[in-house]
Amino acid sequence: MPEEADPIDPADDSAGFAQPIGTGMEPVPPGAGAEFSAATVERLRNRLDQFDAVRTRGEVESRSAHLGGQSPR
Amino acid sequence: MPWLLDSYGGARPRVLQAVLAHAVALGARSAVIEYRYLDPDWRNEHRDFYASTFRRYPSVAHRLHFFEEPPDADWISSERPATIQGLTYLGYCVLRPVPAAPVGRTMLRPLQSADLTCVARDRVNLFGTELTVDGAPFIAQDAQLSRCAQTTTWVTAYYHHLKFRGPRVLPGAIAAAVANTLEHGRQLPSPGLTIGQMADAARSIGLPPLVYPLRNLAEGESVPTMVCRYLNSGIPVTIATRAHAFVLVGYSRSADADGKKLIHFLRHDDETGPYQRVEHWLLDEHGPWEYAIVPLPAKVYLPGENAEAIGGQRLRDELDRTRTDEAAQLLARLDDPDHPLSFRSTVVLSNEFKNTLTARLYPADVAAAYQRMQMSRFVWVVELTDRNLRDARQPCVLAEAVIDATDHIRDLHVLGWRVPGAVWGWLPDEDRQTVRRNLAPVPLTISIAQPHVVHPPVSPG
Question: Which residues of chain A does B365 touch, with a Cβ-Cβ cutoff of 8 Å?
Answer without folding.
Answer: 24
